[in-house]
DNA sequence: ACCTATGATTACCT
DNA sequence: AGGTAATCATAGGT
């Protein structure tokens, strides 16, 4: 940066007299004029440089040529290169001393244009090498991380399959229901491949630009090395600087690609951000289980696995669902009344059907099948809890009494029969079967929920063990 | 735009 | 480890 002042100083200290023929002056300078005479020569040369733009192209070209053909040129060039190498190394070491370099007077007088250009280049090299030294190592680890991530996301990996594999992995991680969000995944894949494409075209573009620029700079430097002290080593260094520069740009590209992928991922696959409702079937299965095990809605690990399989969701999702359900049911039982009715009835119907089928083989009719049929008529026909409550409560109550009573106690009651008991009992509890004088909400107070809000199994001793449903258990003759 | 439903997460408890 | 309660953040309906 101190180039300008230096030049200005020299300029000011010397007269403006113009002299032709640079080589001659150089020769004169070489002649070893000391003191004022030498200064005068330098001033003359400088003046010529300053006015070089005023000269015609041919004239300048001729001088350049003459300079290149100077007999001392190769030797001088080598010396300059050497000094420069050394100076660059020094300047890197003592980077904050922006030392104005002191050249041997002989060299100064020999080739001012060379010295000047050398100084300029020296300056730029200093800057570049400092920068280069600073950016040397740190990005490596980060670059590797980015590369790994891009590879993992299928952006930088092999052409096909990588993306979908990543999507599938992400889908598995998010635990979403398969059929439901497959469309979404294709959308995700499409967007991912879009990112991938952009990434690759950009990468290619950068690479090409890097190569082009490198060749350009190399040519330029080679060209300039005829007039400036540029050694092949320096060209090499310059090239590596350029490559570093471009690879830092590449890293930026990689970084932003990673960001884009992350955003895409979070938008499409992050379970929490993009919450997907379970599909209707899954919800029904879960609700069915919940309401048929209302006295103890805590599915065992096995039951959870089974439910998870049935609903094509994960076990932890099942756990979440039951956790949420329990708490929300307990908090506002009234709100769930209708739902409870519905599922209670449905479960009863299912059980009745199963039981009817089972008994058709062996015995004519069973009390619980009758009960289920009674249950059926209410909520499903007119779909209203109110009318359901009023119409058949008596029958239901009787049926359940008998089911839960002695007649079924000793028999090999199947697990699903227990479900029916829970379900029907629940229906009864809201229809006023257990308590007459209460309001709807109070009536609905579920059996099993104690004063503290916890579920108790006191009312249904048999449901302490979570029943595992199996057709086999019903199959056995439960009638007599 | 608002509201409710709902799946997930969190802190805390047993 | 598994439960509860509170909370978050979004889906989906109006």
C-alpha Rg, in Å?
45 Å
Helical stretch count? 21
Tell me the major beta sheet.
none
- The tally of beta strands, per DSSP, is 0
**Proportion of helical residues:** over 70%
Pfam family, one: Homeobox_KN
Subcellular location: Nucleus
Domain PBC: 37-270
Domain Homeobox: 269-332
Describe the structure.
Helices cover 70% and strands 0% of the residues. The chain contains 21 helices and no strands. The longest helix has 43 residues, at 182-224. Residues 1-33, 95-128, 130-136, 160-181, 360-416, 430-446 and 457-480 have low confidence and may be disordered.
List the helices and strands and how they pair.
Elements: H1 3-13, H2 22-30, H3 36-50, H4 57-68, H5 73-93, H6 105-110, H7 112-134, H8 139-152, H9 162-174, H10 182-224, H11 232-268, H12 280-292, H13 301-311, H14 315-331, H15 337-362, H16 367-382, H17 385-404, H18 406-409, H19 415-431, H20 440-444, H21 471-475
The structure holds a DNA duplex (14 and 14 nucleotides).
């Amino acid at each position: 940066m101190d180039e300008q002042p230096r030049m200005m100083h020299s300029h000011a200290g010397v007269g403006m007299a113009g002299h032709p023929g640079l080589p001659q002056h150089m020769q004169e300078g070489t002649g070893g004029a000391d003191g004022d005479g030498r200064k005068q020569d330098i001033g003359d040369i400088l003046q010529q440089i300053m006015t070089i733009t005023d000269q015609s192209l041919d004239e300048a070209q001729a001088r350049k040529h003459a300079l290149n053909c100077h007999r001392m040129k190769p030797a001088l060039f080598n010396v300059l290169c050497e000094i420069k190498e050394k100076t660059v190394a020094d300047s890197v070491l003592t980077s904050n001393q922006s030392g104005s370099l002191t050249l041997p007077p002989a060299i100064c007088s020999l080739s001012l244009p060379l010295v000047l250009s050398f100084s300029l280049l020296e300056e730029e090299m200093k800057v570049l090498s400092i920068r280069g030294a600073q950016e040397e190592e740190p990005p490596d680890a980060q670059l590797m991380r980015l590369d790994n991530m891009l590879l993992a996301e299928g952006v930088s990996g092999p052409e096909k399959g990588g993306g979908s594999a990543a999507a599938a992995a992400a889908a598995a991680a998010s635990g979403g229901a398969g059929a439901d969000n497959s469309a979404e995944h294709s959308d995700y894949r499409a967007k991912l491949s879009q990112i991938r494409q952009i990434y690759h075209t950009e990468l290619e573009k950068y690479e090409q630009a890097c190569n082009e620029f490198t060749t350009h700079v190399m040519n330029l430097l080679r060209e300039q090395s005829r007039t400036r002290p540029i050694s092949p080593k320096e060209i090499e260094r310059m090239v590596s600087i350029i490559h570093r520069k471009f690879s830092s740009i590449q890293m930026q590209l990689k970084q932003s690609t990673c960001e884009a992928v992350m955003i895409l991922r979070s938008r499409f696959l992050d379970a929490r951000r993009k919450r997907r409702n379970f599909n209707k079937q899954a919800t029904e299965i879960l609700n069915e289980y919940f309401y048929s095990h209302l006295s103890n809605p805590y599915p065992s690990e096995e039951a959870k696995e089974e439910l998870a399989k049935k609903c094509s969701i994960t076990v932890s999702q099942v756990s979440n669902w039951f956790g949420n359900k329990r708490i929300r049911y307990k908090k506002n039982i009234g709100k769930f009344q209708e739902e409870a009715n519905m599922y209670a009835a449905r479960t009863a119907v299912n059980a009745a059907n199963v039981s009817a089928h089972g008994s058709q083989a062996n015995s004519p009719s069973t009390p619980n099948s009758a009960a289920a049929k009674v249950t059926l008529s209410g909520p499903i026909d007119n779909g209203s809890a109110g009318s359901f409550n009023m119409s058949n409560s008596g029958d239901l109550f009787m049926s359940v009494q008998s089911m839960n009573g002695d007649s079924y106690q000793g028999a090999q009651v199947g697990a699903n029969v227990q479900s029916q008991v829970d379900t029907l009992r629940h229906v009864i509890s809201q229809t006023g079967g257990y308590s007459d004088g209460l309001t709807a909400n109070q009536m609905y107070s579920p059996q099993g929920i104690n004063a503290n809000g916890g579920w108790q199994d006191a009312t249904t001793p048999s449901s302490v063990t979570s029943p595992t449903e199996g057709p086999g258990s019903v199959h056995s003759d439960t009638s007599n």
